[in-house]
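In the previous lecture we treated proteins in isolation. Real proteins rarely work alone, and many bind small molecules. This record shows how such a complex is specified: first the sequence, then the SMILES for zinc ion.
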Amino acid sequence: MCAMITKEDLIQDIKNLGVKPGDILHLKVSMRSVGKVEGGPKALLDALLEAVGKEGTLVSDAFINACPLPLNEEQKKCIADQHTPSYAGAFANAMIQHPHMKRSKHPIQKYAAIGKHAEQLCNKHTPESGGYDLLHEMAKQGAKNLTIGKKVAGVGTTHVAIDLLGFRRKQMNKGVLYKDENGNTKLAKVNWNGGCAAGFPKFIPHYRQSGGVIGEGPVGQATGLLTSMKRTLEIEMDILRENPRFFFCDDKACYSCQMTWEHSPKNPLSFYPRWLLRNMNSLSFSRIKRLLKTTKNTEKHA
Ligand SMILES: [Zn+2]
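The predicted 3D structure, ligand included, written as tokens:
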């Protein structure tokens, strides 16, 4: 049986990566990858707070789900606020429940922050801001990204680079209701790019080669990657200026990368046959599964 991971183990792992007192950390955490932690996500949060100390700041992605527009009657009853849970996982929600948590004022891309610069960062991220503007601000303030997971999918600054270079894609028609400072209910629409996460890990070897990585090592049973946000942003900008398609994944049947960006290949003769083949496969597979289930049920009831 695996021994439980303690808060003290986690503090040691985090320090070994190069986290220092006073650090401003942007966090992306997969709690499941860390393993069995005594005290759960709260213990990892406490370990991180202890590692950065009183002068430090933690910021986690804690975005909320937007709904397809127009909203139905049920969705109109949900008003996003500072405590709306996030889809970003157990760690993000442990941050949200912390008594000293501040949440960014953005209605959908709601980062959760704790520590010295939490309020200042969150107040700057308003309904008028871009979805990832807070990460740009953190990069300017010398923050580090700490990604903890099975595999590192991205370090956050890629979204900032994409915005700064003016890449555009088809917007999703989604939104949420929130209350503005005067208590009026307003609709916030998704107005940022997002992107296909499968392409972002292509930058990681470049972060290593060009001084973006501060530390790499285990956090519990997960892999931790600590990077300089200022440096990863510079590296991404350099690469994307040369090759604007670098962040696209290699899957030629990926709709997001192949078809939705202004600079996507948008080659219907290459894309649609592959896309169709893939969807036909999944369709027949699910149909077979449904058929098998029906047979099994019939057998049970027979
Ligand atoms: Zn893709």
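Summary for your notes: The first helix runs from residue 7 to 17. The first strand starts at residue 24 and ends at 29.
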